[in-house]
Amino acid sequence: MYEQLKLDNQLCFRFYTVSRLITQAYGPMLEKLGVTYPQYLVLLVLWEKDSQPVNDIAKRLLLNTNTVTPLLKRMEDEGLLSRKKGTEDARQVIVSLTDKGKELEEQAMNIPFQLLQKFSCTNLDQDQVAFLAPTLDSLIDTLK
User: What is the pTM of this model?
Assistant: First the structure.
């Protein structure tokens, strides 16, 4: 067998596994809010800046609009956001938080801290976790 084809030698498998496990770790926290992980990501984008075009949300999440649109529709059906045609460009759809979506921000305030707490029972300290962000950002910039 070729050494480079062993699973243990695949960096991509480590990223896939970490991503899946982190998403899983968010599960109980997001369940209390009544949202899924992808919905949480959309909320993070809108809490940062409300009333954005679908295209901008998709770009921020590094997703295609055809992936984001059904997600936004479900969130609208759940009363978390509203979608309206743009006033300047009718082809544009502007997504805004509803009061319900805005209220979730306060409830979500401790989620990042709670996730970091999960790391505290490992060998990783907070500085090592913080160091990961710029490294991962570099990889993301290279791959996108």
Answer: 0.89
